[in-house]
């Protein structure tokens, strides 16, 4: 067994210990300083970041200035926000004004946006302290954070294993105690899967609930930003801060952020929890055992478990790997050596485009751009992309039918616990299968989250996924809170 493997390390990693809710309350009332919180995190970063590589950039000086200002505001009796002094790590595909934002790609190395993403501004307005930009699979394309141009991130619970992806750096930062919470983005499971592998709570909100303004786009009809935290209550508070209408995002829902913290104590008495009877196969026995234990816990708390069918779920992976690459091939066309980042000089403009993109993009990004461009090309659009959109509609219809029978659905988040480095890199299909349970929700635009529930192989955490209909965050968080209490 690795010396950093198992639940003991998880306990120590989180022993920096205070939650988002605790820190915000203590800093606001003056019993804890924001500077002390930050220095504790920076000490953890100094001790283990070289081993874990959660960050592309640690913004220690900016963070110290920010924490000092928050403490001064508290001393002066000024109003501080709901996240006063809470340290947060940001996935490095979210624009931060004047701070390098690379998407873990050579093509954006050195690029500093002239504005903040909406979620960054909302967190800052509530008193958050940003500790750095986290590593990810390049342009959020991957399930292990092995595709970063700046090297892989390791799972703090066992550094021989992956933290999941694409938001692996954001998950690792919280699991290692480098930050109290973090933000990731989820296009096909990129928050929920690393949350499961690192023993965290991870939320993928309803599409349009959280603004995408300032998020570097991968799949525009799929991407959503959400939090990583160590508790369900922390995730609820983070959602209340980052969600809500944004006129700068044309896909933003015209409604306020949901109030979720009040839902956590309501329990699940009388709720109907769906069990998918035709669920895709391939999950390991330890993961399935924890899923059954989760159903048992909800039954014991007064919920009813009902069988539901999702026949189109089997085709979600196929549809996703046509829809997402098609959108990526369009979105990434803007990175051409003219406006952003890397530029490789050549004899003419077209040669410069080709040379820049060949040098700037990694293998997985090139693979998906080519796949998406092919699917959208004349003669193949109807055969591939058009059919994928029809499958997407069928998945949404199946979910709609299932939710007439239940309030939420439970599945595994990941088919296995965290796997070893290199286990799946030579077989892209095996890597893609890591997201078989998470992808359908993105295609439907619904809400989903992963909560840690027990352990599996080698004492590593297992994540249970809670699925809910669009705008179903309130019942979803009720179920999550009950599962947390059951452990």
How is this structure best described in words?
With 487 residues, the protein is α/β, with parallel strands linked by helices. The chain has a domain at 7-264: Amidase signature (AS) domain (Amidase signature (AS) enzymes, Alpha-Beta Complex). The protein has 16 helices and eleven strands. Strands 1-3-2-4-6-5-10-11-9-7-8 form an eleven-stranded mixed beta sheet, with helices on both faces. Helix 10 crosses helix 12 (363-376). The longest helix has 22 residues, at 381-402. The model is unreliable at 1-16 (pLDDT under 50).
Anisotropy-based shape: globular
What integer is the average pLDDT? 95
Q: What is the CA-CA span between the terminal residues?
A: 25 Å
- Which CATH top level class of one domain fits? Alpha Beta
Total number of helices: 16
Q: Give the CATH topology of one domain.
A: Amidase signature (AS) enzymes
What is the CATH homology-level superfamily of one domain?
A: Amidase signature (AS) domain
Number of beta strands: 11
Largest pleated sheet: 11 strands, mixed
Strand percent estimate: 5-15%
Q: What ranges have pLDDT less than 50 throughout 5 or more consecutive residues?
A: 1-16
Helix content: 25-40%
Overall CATH architecture of one domain: Alpha-Beta Complex
What is the string of SSEs from the N terminus onward? Answer: HHHEHEHEHEHEEHEHEHHHHEHHEEH
* SS class: alpha/beta
Radius of gyration: 21 Å
């Amino acid at each position: 067994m690795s010396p950093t493997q198992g639940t003991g390390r998880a306990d120590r990693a989180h022993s920096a210990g205070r939650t988002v809710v605790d820190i915000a309350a203590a800093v606001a009332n003056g019993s804890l300083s924001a500077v002390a919180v930050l220095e504790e995190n920076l000490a953890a970063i100094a001790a283990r970041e070289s081993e874990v590589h959660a960050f592309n950039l640690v913004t220690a000086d900016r963070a110290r200035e920010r924490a000092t200002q928050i403490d001064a505001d508290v001393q002066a009796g000024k109003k501080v926000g709901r996240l006063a002094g809470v340290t947060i790590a940001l996935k490095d595909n979210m624009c931060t004004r004047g701070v390098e934002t690379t998407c873990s790609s050579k093509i954006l190395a050195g690029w500093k946006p002239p504005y903040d993403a909406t979620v960054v501004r909302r967190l800052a307005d509530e008193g958050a302290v940003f500790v750095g930009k986290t590593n990810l699979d390049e342009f959020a394309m991957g399930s292990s954070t092995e595709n970063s141009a700046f090297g892989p991130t390791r799972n703090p619970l066992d550094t021989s294993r992956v933290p999941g992806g694409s938001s692996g750096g954001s998950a690792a930062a919280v699991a290692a105690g480098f930050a109290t919470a973090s933000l990731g983005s989820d296009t096909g499971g990129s928050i929920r899967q690393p949350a499961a592998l690192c023993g965290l709570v991870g939320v993928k909100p309803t599409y349009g609930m959280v603004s995408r303004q300032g998020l570097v786009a991968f799949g525009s009809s799929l991407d959503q930003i959400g939090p990583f935290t160590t508790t369900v209550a922390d995730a609820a508070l983070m959602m209340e801060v980052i969600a809500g209408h944004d006129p700068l995002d044309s896909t933003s829902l015209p409604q306020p952020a949901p109030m979720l913290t009040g839902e956590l104590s309501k329990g699940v008495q009388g709720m109907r929890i769906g069990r998918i009877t035709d669920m895709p196969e391939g999950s390991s026995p330890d993961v399935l055992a924890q899923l059954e234990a989760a159903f048992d816990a909800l039954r014991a708390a007064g919920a009813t478990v009902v069988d539901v069918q999702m026949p189109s779920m089997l085709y979600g992976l196929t549809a996703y790997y046509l829809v997402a690459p098609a959108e990526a091939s369009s979105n990434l066309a803007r990175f051409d050596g003219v406006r952003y980042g890397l530029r490789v000089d050549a004899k003419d403009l077209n040669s410069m485009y080709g040379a820049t993109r060949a040098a700037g993009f990694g293998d997985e990004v090139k693979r998906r751009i080519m796949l998406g461009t092919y699917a959208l090309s004349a003669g193949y659009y109807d055969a591939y992309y058009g059919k994928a959109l029809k499958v997407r509609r069928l998945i949404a219809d199946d979910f709609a039918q299932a939710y007439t029978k239940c309030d939420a659905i439970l599945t595994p988040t990941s088919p296995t616990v965290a796997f070893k480095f290199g286990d799946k890199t030579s077989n892209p299909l095996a890597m893609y299968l890591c997201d078989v349970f998470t992808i359908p929700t993105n295609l439907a635009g619904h809400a989903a989250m992963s909560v840690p529930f027990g352990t599996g192989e080698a004492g590593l955490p297992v994540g249970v996924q809670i699925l809910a209909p669009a705008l179903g965050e309130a019942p979803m968080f009720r179920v999550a809170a009950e599962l947390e209490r059951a452990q």
